[in-house]
Amino acid sequence: MEVFEAPPPHKTIIDDALPLSCTFETYRLVDRHIEYVIRVQRGYYNGKHWTVFKRYNDFVALDKEIEARRYDIELPPKKIFGNFDREFIVQRQNKLQKYMNQVLENLILSSSVWVKRFLDPENYCESFQDSALQYASMALRGKPDFHNLKPLPYIGWRFKKHYCSVKRYNEAKREYILTWISEYGPNRCLSDKELQSTFKVFLDLQHPFIIPIVTGNCYSSGTLIIRSNCVRGSLRELIYDRAPFDSFIRKCSYRSERILLPSDAIYTIAIQVLHALVYLHQKGIPYGNLHSGNIFIEDDVAKISDVENGIFGLTSIYQSYLVENRRVHSMEDIDVYCFGHVLYEMVFGERLQSPFCDMIPPDCDENLKPILELILSSSPKSKLPSVKAILSTAVFDVSASNIVLNEPPRCKVTTSTKEFLGRCRKTIEDRMHKEQNELRKLRKITYLKEQMKIEEQNGSISSREKRKMKRVKSQVPLTASSPEQFENMSNGSTPTSVSTESSFRNSSCDKLSENPPEVRATPPSSAPTPVSDERNVFLQSIVNFNKGNLKQTKAKEAR
Fold it and tell me: Which tens digits make up the pLDDT trace of 268-279?
């Protein structure tokens, strides 16, 4: 069918998990409105940046969509009179910068389609929901048993992964969840034919702690998956006491009172999740997408979902955290690290909002505290434990003796499929290693730049060290258009107010600083024209002109 044709080959796949950062550079007056000039960059180090222009009303519309107040983030209030006062404009600009810093530091808000569309309108201008509903309706025609398609907008963090509720003709009371993946991720490495062959593994996969796929199909433009609906919802809804079909932003918003799970429930859920991960690792299936929204509770049994995400090239919600963690090297490390975040969320009733947590809160279960410290530590000296090692700890080993598998697991992996799964796993690991290495280069530049500043102040820098610094800088592609931008990149962060260097050195679970640096108050002016060497000489001669050096001459008398 024409609707399932492959997307244009020139279309660039963007990793939606990469963080966006922004800085307010200046402001300008357009049609009697103040427009803020904002420089935006994707990622930490790749230098891809652009400029957007926003009015205050644009921020009001964004705040209404993301409901930032639910996350204790307040937008600067509106003002009726005195909007063109220069001092007020600068104050509002600084407050808006602080507001955007808090939004972008929040993993939930920064991953929403509204924030992406606000800062990157060129790549996120289309209506993803409308086009996905059209594709899902067309794909459902090939499944005559299912009908009554009802969209469930934005119940997950991936806005390119769409959900609908459907029903079966012979099961009027039972509800199913249809998932349409409208765009494959940046880690996809399989052709359409290879992807369809590999997807059959997941259609056949049966495990007591993994939610099975009822039916599904892979197309060039996306994938259709239908699963049974878990009435109680996911672990996230259980922790935050939310309805399963609420929007993702509302599910994860702060509550005045935390809901803490009983210790026995935490042990049981953790063990069942670990058993599912062990089985996936034994079969060579790359997962890497574990979080509380992918763990469902059905008949008091925890089951993980979306185990097929790896072959579609979809990245983890913790992708930015994984890049910063030097202890993460393999797919198993990714699953262990994600399990640490899930365990933290179950124990404390809230998400860990930083890559590491070296200071575990004192109200932690004494049996689980060593496991959290081992997984979430920022120390690069200790390796991440394996899933089997975590299961063999005393607290889980005793509880695991009560776990009984009612049905034997089933998963048929052929030789060719095993090769495809291995290629997917290698692609994910190679990309992560590449990002980690580039981040390490940036840290090295940061360190050398700081040392260079100290030595310049002491007057002890040598020509050899200068050459070394110049050589290291040349290893990273720079697209900065001014010395200030280059200075920011050399200091270990993009030219933004959301400093990445602070997150590099964050060794506790405290939030990043909420105080942004001062924003330049001067309005934009035309860029100075470059001065040639001849003009420099001419200007210097004017500056050094001395009237006393002129020769005295006598004027001839007029006849």
Answer: 999 999 999 999
